[in-house]
Specification:
Layout (H helix, E strand, L loop, with lengths): L4 H6 L1 E8 L6 H4 E4 L2 E4 L4 E4 L8 E3 L12 E2 L7 E3 L4 E6 L9 E6 L6 H6 L4 H16 L1
Parallel strand pairs: 1-4, 3-9
Antiparallel strand pairs: 1-2, 4-7, 5-6, 5-8, 8-9
The protein binds copper (II) ion (CU).
Copper (II) ion binds next to loops.
Length: 140
């Protein structure tokens, strides 16, 4: 491996997958933290599933051409993805997407193709959440 431990560390981002029984709405009860993540090209994102009850799945079509897609089950040990293709990636949980458990990852410094991403947003609460995150990304 090239590069020191520190350089490697700076390119690894952890996303918590939360189950919060005290939350007042289902969308808040099951969530990714953060739900909007911007990372440099080549970064690795780790979906921690620390409470053991979440999957992490690419949202259909919501990834740039040639970019990685993934489908991590509840029991998978290695739940990390390296993003070598810039663009916008949608992620959901197969179990809680219907409650709005979804997030966006934007990879790279260049301008994001928001129009392309909006065109493939799915329906339901998951889609509503992703649309809201695209609005946030646009406002940044
Ligand atoms: Cu979940």
């Amino acid at each position: 491996m090239m590069g020191g431990a520190l350089a490697e560390e700076m390119k690894v981002f952890t996303v918590d997958q939360v189950t919060d029984a005290s939350a007042s709405t289902p969308a808040h009860m099951f969530r990714f933290e953060p739900d909007l993540l911007q990372v440099p090209l080549g970064a690795t994102v780790l979906f921690d599933n620390f409470d053991g009850d979440h999957t992490a799945i690419s949202v259909k079509k919501m990834a740039p051409d040639g970019g990685p897609t993934f489908n991590f089950g509840k029991l998978d040990k290695d739940r990390s993805v390296t993003f070598d293709t810039p663009g916008i990636y949608g992620v959901t949980c197969g179990l809680h997407g219907r409650f709005g458990m979804a997030m966006l990852i934007k990879v790279g410094d260049g301008p994001a193709d928001l129009t392309g991403a909006r065109a493939v947003v799915p329906g339901g609460r998951k889609g509503a959440k992703l649309s809201q995150l695209l609005d946030q990304l646009e406002a940044n």
